[in-house]
Design goal:
Largest sheet: 11 strands, antiparallel
Number of strands: 11
CATH topology of the largest domain: outer membrane lipoprotein receptor (LolB), chain A
Strand content: 25-35%
Radius of gyration: 24 Å
CATH class of the largest domain: Mainly Beta
Helix content: 10-25%
Structural class: alpha+beta
Number of helices: 4
Order of helices and strands: HHHEEEEEEHEEEEE
Strand order of the largest sheet: 6-5-4-3-2-1-11-10-9-8-7
CATH architecture of the largest domain: Clam
Amino acid sequence: MATSRRITGGRRYRRPVARHAVAVAAKGLAGALAAVVLGLAGCAEAERPTTTDEGVPPTERLGDEALPSELRAFLERAEVGQDAAFTGTWAVTNNLGGGTASVEVATDPPAVRIAAADLVIVDGPRPATCLVSAGACVGEVREQQLAPLGIFSGFFSSGPAQALRTAARRPGAGEPVATTRSVAGIDVDCLAIPVGGVTTATSCLTPEGIFGWVDTPSVHYELTRYAPGRSAQTLDPPYPVEGDGSFLLDPG
């Protein structure tokens, strides 16, 4: 099913708390019925995972204020980066068998334009998913069209930030490990969260707060060209927005 959405990080999921109410009106069998119901409720409570008073597992209830200070500062830089205008090209390698692709991004917040081969996605005030070969667009962001590349539309912003939050909340998460590297001629600051003593993912920010180098078990991408500032090109849909998107390829 087609989806249309913007991705944001840091939201908390709250598990609803089951509530049991037993009302017995009839006399005679009231005691027996109440005993059975309460017995079943007790079994259900015994099998339920431990939660806080709000019904949220401890690893899910932690806000950013509970994260290590170094990670909080890194995430704040990434938050600022979501308002930064830039143009850039990433070399994206899908480690799960999707090959390597060149992905171009131009932003003038809140507008974002992502182009990869025949595909163009525009997010912002005038969202669209387009095929160059069809010369047409559908008026929404179809994230699944990016799936063969191993990324989605927030791959340079909200996606890695949320992955760092998730890693830091896992049981066995260690202190952040900071490093630096050079990519596309600029120095980037990197952070990794080891879990159980093993580091499997590293994410790196440009000075403007853009994720310019990311390495995970499923995907690796890094900048090959980067320029801060607004793009000279328009970030509107490049073709007429019409139809139901039947011209789009099935990403399989």
